[in-house]
Amino acid sequence: MKQTLRRFKNWLGQTLRAVWPLLLSGIVLFVLLMVIGGMVWKDYRTALIESQTRQMELVVQSLADSIQFSLAEYDDRLDAAVQKLEDHPDLKPSLARSDTLCDIWIENADGVVTYSCYGVTAICDVMLTDSGEGITYWQYHSGDQHYLVLKKQAGEQSVCLVVNSEVMYEQLVSDIHVGTNGYVMIKNADDRIVMHPERAQWGIDVLEGRRRLYNNTQLDMSSLEELLRAQQEEVSGIRDYYSYWWTDPDVPRVHKISAYRQLSLGDSFWIVSAVVDYDDLYEPVAESFRKVTVLFICVAVVLGLFIVLVFRLQQKERRNVTEINDLKSLNATLEELHRSEESLAHGQRLQLMGTLTGGIAHEFNNFLTPIMGYADLIMADADPGSEIYDNALEISDAAQKAQDVVKQISSMSRKNVETVYEAVSVEKLVNNTLKLVETNCPKQIILKEELDLNGADVLGNSTQLQQVILNICVNAIHAIGQDEGTLTLRADVVPRTELASRLPEEKISYDWQSYVRLSISDNGCGMDKDTLQHIFEPFFTTKKTGEGTGLGLALAEQIIRTHRGWICAESTLGKGTTFYIYLPVLEQQHAQEQLQWGQDRKLRILAADDNKKVLDLLETDFGRLGLEVVTCSRRGEVRSLLEEQPFDVLAIDESLTGGSGVDFCMAIQGKYPGLTRIIMTNTPTREIVDARRHRVIDGYIVKPVSAGTLLEEIRTCQRQKQ
Questions:
Q1: In the chain, what is the greatest distance between 2 CA atoms, to the nearest angstrom?
Q2: Residue of 267, 297, 269, 126 lying closest to 189 (CA atoms)
Q3: Are the beta carbons of 196 and 188 closer than 8 angstroms?
Q4: Of 536, 582, 657, 675, which has the most beta carbons under 10 Å away?
Q5: Residue 650 belongs to a domain
């Protein structure tokens, strides 16, 4: 027994002496990894939070500009109604209703409504703002419905414009998401809430109203008071503070972040504020920390196993060789980790730079727009050669040079790169793409091409479309792998009904008669049903880590959608995959020669709107100017008139009965290339702005429209074409 105990002690001593250096080395290495990981973690957390707070600032700036634009439009309508009432006291003001504009009132000196255009009734709550320019802003309610009422004196009476503030708020913030519990609110200069996601807070004071709402007068509001003082003194900014969530009945004190910006209302102002829980911004950072923690735990486990392995190999007299090989492998892993960290930091810097340059370009374009617009208006009304005309021309030239500088800045942000749409030969597109595919295609893969297009063209950007086809072909090559296989690209023209069997009816535009169908087939590994459902989602990939971003097919789907097309896929696991791309066929140019308007004849305009009053107004205004205008109210009539007689300009309402005005202009671009296409809209949507940038339309005009404003837009479009 004693001998056995002695042998065990000797073995234990030898083991400790052998393992101790390895154990010490492992501890030092682990501590080193923890220090490096902590440094990387700190920098990553700071960059991510700064990026998200900057995004909040950009959101608030954009929202403030939108609100100010809407209020300015309401002010103009109210001024027009007051002027009309002052000129014709016996003529009651009228209003074309919309989602936001509900009614127009006349109040006597006692505040009693003596006239209502649509019979909307409401109770006055409080005056929000006096602009100092004759217009006051009031908050009214009727049951659970809230209204924003703009008032202006007209003699002893007041004209009131009634705005559905709830609809206005929903339209403005519907596409804005601020964290999990975040929200957007608007206040007046006295910290009284104008709009808020919680209707119970409309019209209340931020401090006292919340104490009443929470039924607690002992809440610590000192941090919130400091924020309110800063919002009164600063035009814009971002601050963190402590307050309470109105959604939680327990009223917990939470750490919040507020990005805010003032919008001017004459002598006063409103404050637009986006509020988010600090934990919402921190959550992505915390998720990354958890991943890093798991990584370090795995490293520790691997390190422990490594020590055990080395000890066992030491007993087999192979300790030195094993230690050298493992150390080499570990050094390579650390170097790869270091390169990955540098790549991640570089990507974050590029993302931040893109966001910054995009915001700068946006703001400068907002400044340049009125400068260039008013300069053009002055030149249009002034005599060429006069001093006023020359000065306006100098302003316009300087603004144009500034616009070129902004475009150079915008090129740093990919989302701001302008893309021009033009007629693209599908046959040429496919052939050029296959030449690129051949250079990257292994010898064991056979490329096949089957085209039956009859010279069909599509309207789009050839570079983007080539990128889509090339990306799918490369994915097909990867799916085939090292095996022998076939990659087949087919293209033909199919009627619109082909899409009707694949898409819901509401997603199909009837402006297109036929579509080019591109199919890219391979006999590779294929996909199961679950994978097939997610292939167009961003960051979804079946490739190994580091071999793919998961953005290729998501970007392809986005490009095809902007081209008014559709992309889908069919796949069978172990047999292969086929991608289908549908693009609308561009109509060929009309046989009748397109005439250009000039000095030899009058300008011929085709105006299409489902509002008869708008059409009557245009006929009257253009008749006074001695110009010819033809009007219609239905989509089918527009096509018939374009077929029957030549026109120089098409002015079409964006939501003409039957579909989108942008889709219609895109459909006829190839058939009538000389036609100037102008959209009439209540609000310039992103779709309309993008359509003009892509040159699908030549311009747009914001309602209310007149012959003068339409002619000015036509002149602008003609100058741009030249």
A1: 124
A2: 269
A3: no
A4: 582
A5: yes
Please state, in angstroms and as integers, the Cα–Cα distance from residue 634 to each residue in 193, 299, 615, 641, following that order: 44, 70, 12, 11
For residue 174, what is the domain's CATH number?
Answer: 3.30.450.20
- Please check whether residues 393 and 426 belong to one and the same domain: no
Which single residue is written with the structure tokens 């140019």? 589
Q: 3-state DSSP helix/strand/coil percent for the chain, to nearest 5?
A: 50, 25, 30
Mean pLDDT (the chain, rounded): 78
Are both 60 and 149 inside the same structural domain? yes
- Co-location of 441 and 357 in the same domain: no
List of residues 6+ apart from 550 with CB closer than 8 A: 537, 538, 539, 540, 541
Q: Which residues contact 58 (CB under 8 A, 6 or more apart)?
A: 355, 359
270 shares its domain with 224: yes
Contact 103, 120 (CB under 8 A): yes
Determine contact, residues 67/263, Cβ cutoff 8 Å: yes
Token pair listed for 563: 């081209």
pLDDT in tens, 45-75: 677 777 777 888 888 888 888 888 889 999 9
Counted residue by residue, the chain has a size of 722
| DSSP characters over 235-291 | SEEEEEEEEE-TT-TT--EEEEEEEEEEEEETTEEEEEEEEEEHHHHHHHHHHHHHH
Domain of residue 370 covers 345-416
* pLDDT tens sequence across 8-38: 666 666 666 655 666 676 677 777 777 776 7
Determine the Cα–Cα distance for residues 649 and 677; give it in Å rounded to an integer. 6
Count of domains forming the chain:
4
Look at residue 35 and tell me if it is in a domain.
no
Q: Which of 416, 444, 475 is the last residue of a domain?
A: 416
Pair 410, 352: CB distance under 8 Å: no
What is the phi/psi pair of residue 602, to 5°? Answer: -75, 155
Clarify whether residues 81 and 197 are in a common domain: yes
**CATH code, domain carrying 437:** 3.30.565.10
**Residue 443 DSSP label:** T
